[in-house]
């Protein structure tokens, strides 16, 4: 089976959209990134992004991918054979990727083929777990304060917090978060927890796509931690998604952070699948 590739977001969604939505939780990032590109209008996808799909001569699609320059190539669920073939296609075309984000077996197969052809060193960048909300369990006791929608007047603070979050989790700190913040503000995707009139925590939510929305990032400044703000803010955005009719509320965690993993489980999130991000050379950053 051959891989088919395009730089056209609309073409990709026309061909692969149904395949992605059939497992919306597992394909959350591809769905939300392409939804944001569509919402941004013509020209938004002219940034070197590459999409692709694999389909046998007869029958439905079996795999898809998305690659944004500077980010790891993101794979849907796929066979090891398909992942290795994609790596060979990329290497043969001179298409550079700094890493791969996939389930372990597909990531390993892609990496083996890529390394054989490029000689790039490979390291484990991050191991992640996808969680889906089963039944929201409000945190207790609830900390002081309440949730509110972020506004344009919060932009500077949000820029500081998004940057601090990126540094803390090891992403590239020089990334300009302003466009991401403005986009999220445009659809009401940022919630701030305020205590005594002071913003103390933030949680974000993606657009709803295919009945699914993803929570993240969630950030509380170090001096405000240990008071339940992150749990309360996460519960607030999770409930808001449910109230809006979202069927699947999901989030990703870093498996190296047992505190956040335990928090989300207490809130009613349950594990769906694990993914690994393998870094080639140079190192990678992540989609927000």
Task: Please give a structural write-up.
With 288 residues, this protein is α+β, with helices and mostly antiparallel strands. The protein contains eight helices and twelve strands. It folds into two domains: 126 residues; 133 residues, Gcn5-related N-acetyltransferase (GNAT) (Aminopeptidase). The protein has a twelve-stranded mixed β-sheet with strand order 1-2-3-4-5-12-6-11-10-9-8-7, sandwiched between helices. The longest helix is centred in the middle third of the chain and has 15 residues. The relative contact order is 0.17. The model has no long low-confidence stretch (mean pLDDT 92).
Helix content: 25-40%
The structural class is alpha+beta
Number of helices: 8
Total number of distinct structural domains: 2
Content of β-strand: 25-35%
Q: At the first level of CATH, what is the class of the largest domain?
A: Alpha Beta
Number of strands: 12
The CATH architecture category of the largest domain equals 3-Layer(aba) Sandwich
CATH names the topology of the largest domain as Aminopeptidase
* First-to-last CA distance: 32 Å
Low-pLDDT windows of residues: none
Sheet with most strands: strand arrangement: 1-2-3-4-5-12-6-11-10-9-8-7
Q: Which radius of gyration do the C-alpha atoms yield? A: 19 Å
- Mean pLDDT, nearest integer? 92
Shape: globular
Largest sheet geometry: 12 strands, mixed
Order of helices and strands: EHHEEEHEHEEHHEEEHEHE
CATH homologous superfamily identity of the largest domain: Gcn5-related N-acetyltransferase (GNAT)
